[in-house]
Amino acid sequence: MAVIGKGQAHGACSLLHAAGLGYGCSMALDLPVAVRLLDKESKRALSDPDGLLEAVVNVWVASGHSLPNKLEKEDLHWAVASKIPPRQGLKSSAAVSIAALRALNNSMEMELEDKDLVLMSAQAQLEAGVSITGSIDDAWACATNGWKLIDVNAETIEEGVLMEGSGPPADDWFVLILSRGERTSRPDPEAFSAQQQNFVHALNAIQEGQELVALTWNGRAMVGIISDSTARKLTNDAFVNGARAAGMSGSGTVIVLVAPSISKPSCERLKQWYTSRYPDVKLIETKFLNAVDVQDEIE
């Protein structure tokens, strides 16, 4: 068995769900994903229940790119190592698709740009049925650091990037993820209209450079759409115990909490609170991944 290509990406959390207003935004998180492209099946079992990796290969070929070593589609195999809890709102599908596309890119010794990978990632996610919108904002956040505000209806990937930012400084903030298991269904697209005002608040906050405020408003909207009373309580508990921001990410089920890293007592209190009162919730500590030398707005 030979490794013929390698690719990496990372997870992200939602600042604005793209199904709300037609604008999406996600912030990069230090939740790494590594994908290897193999010429023979790995001994380690591969979990890909939605056929995302097959969709990645289909989109790669449909985009006019060749497969490595003159192999056929059925001759390609994958190995995935991921720190992202799947199907919980932390952009695992976007991250795996980006990393897999980078593995194909690496195998062919090509130099495709991030925008090309983002486009193919969106197409693959739609083909696999793991995204309502194509998750272009998620793909950007998993491929690069920081965040980008995306118009999902733009004609091209480049034109769709309306704003970008580095994100809250990683050293200043403690990020705690409440992992509650895989979602069992996706929200009804028609339910998003009832939360439009909360999404507007999130969009305005992004435009003002207040990413943590956006995370909270967007989370409130998603909790309302899903009618998740437990998520609402978990979020409220966060603010009582010193968090500055808290909200559901993606279409659930995770809750992302943010507290000042300098306030050690608050960070410890948050961890102890959820550990003692919610034994079924898994805690994941991580941090933001900041972009370097980004503009606040693209003309």
Task: Detail the topology: elements first, then pairings.
Elements: E1 3-16, H1 18-21, E2 23-38, H2 52-62, E3 77-82, H3 92-107, H4 114-128, H5 136-143, E4 147-151, H6 157-160, E5 161-165, E6 173-179, H7 196-207, H8 211-226, H9 229-240, E7 245-248, E8 255-260, H10 264-277, E9 282-286
Antiparallel strand pairs: 1-2, 2-3, 2-4, 4-5, 6-8, 6-9, 7-8
Structure write-up:
This protein has helices at 18-21, 52-62, 92-107, 114-128, 136-143, 157-160, 196-207, 211-226, 229-240, 264-277; strands at 3-16, 23-38, 77-82, 147-151, 161-165, 173-179, 245-248, 255-260, 282-286. With 299 residues, it is of the alpha+beta class. It has two domains: 3-165, Ribosomal Protein S5, domain 2 (2-Layer Sandwich); 170-286, Alpha-Beta Plaits, CATH 3.30.70. The model is unreliable at 294-299 (pLDDT under 50).
